[in-house]
User: What shape does this take?
Amino acid sequence: MKSTEIANGILKAIAAVCGFLLLLYIIYELQSIVAYLIISAIVALIGRPVVILLRKTLRVPNILAVALTMLVIAALFAGIIMLIVPLLTEQGKNLYLFDFGIIQNEFDKLYVMLSEYFGTTKKVVEDLVEDATLNKTDVNGLGKDLVPSFIKSILQVLDNIGIGLFSVLFISFFFLKDSGIIQRSILTSVPDVHRMKTMRSLAKIKNLLSRYFVGLLFQLFILFSFYAITLILVGVENAVLIAFMCALFNIIPYLGPMIGAVIMVMFTITSNPGVDFSTIILPKVGYVMLGVTIGQLIDNFFSQPIIFSNSVKSHPLEIFLVILGAGLLFGIVGMMLAVPGYTVLKVILKQFVSKNKIVTALTRGL
Assistant: This one.
C-alpha cells in the first residue's frame, strides 16, 4: 500500500471522527430542539392509531383527522396543567400552615420506644434524641421557607413547559399530517443498496413503537385507577388529580413509582392539617402505602409483562436488564428511553445482521 493511500485513509478517519464530534456538539447545543423532536415523534406515534381509526372507520379526510387528534391531545395537555397548578397552590398553603414540630415529636417518641425495646439505656436515648431534634424555629420555618420557593420554581417550570408544549404540538401536527417526512429524511442518507431494508425497518419500528406507547398509556391508566381508589378511600382531597399526577411518574422505570409514593404520602399528610398525627395521619399514610404496594405488584407481575411481550416482543427479564444498563450509563433519561431505543436496535439488527446467532435469538419474535 502506497504512503499516499495510507495518508488519505488516516485523513478520512480523522475527518469522520471530527464530523461525529461536531455532530455531538451541535446536538448538545440544540438539545432543546432535539428533545422537542423526540417528544413530538412520541406524540405522533400515540396519535397515529386515532388518525388511522378516523380515516378508515369514519372516512374523515387526513387533514381533518390529524386536526381532531391534535385538538384532543392539546386539550388533554391544557387540562392537566390547569388542574395541577391549583392543586399545587392549595397543597402549598396547607404545607405552609402545617406544624412540622408535630412530626418531629412523634418520631422522637417512636425512636424512644424502639430504643427502649431493644435495651438501650434511657440516658443514651435522651442524648440521641436531643442531638437529633431540630430547633423548633428551624422546623417550623422549613415549611414557610420551602413552600413559596417550591411553588415559584414550579411556576417557572410550567412557563417553560408552555413554550415547549406549543413547539411539540406544532411539530407533532406535521409529523401526523405527513407521516413519511421522517422516513424520507432518513432515506436521503441511505445507500440505494440498503434502501428496501431501511424502509422495512422504519415501517416495523413505527408499528412497534406505536403499540408500545399505547400500551404504556394503558399501564398508566391501571396504576391511576389503583391510586385514585386508594386515595379516595383514605379521604385525601383532590384524590383523582393526585393519583393522575403520581401515575405519570411511572414513565420513569423503577424510580418513578418511588417518587409517586413519596408525593402521595406528602399530599396525605398536608391534606389533614391540625389533626393528630399518630392516630389519624399515620394510619392514613399506612393505607396509602398499602394501596401503592398492591398497585405496583399488579403492575410488575401482570401489566408490564403483558404489555412488553405483546407490544415490543421482548421478555420482561430482557427489558429489566436493558433498563438497568441504560440507567447506569445514562441516568433517568436513559431509563425512560431504554425500551423504545432497544426496540429500534432490535429491528435494525434483524434487517441488517439477521444471520448472526445472537441477533436471531433476540429477534425471534419480531
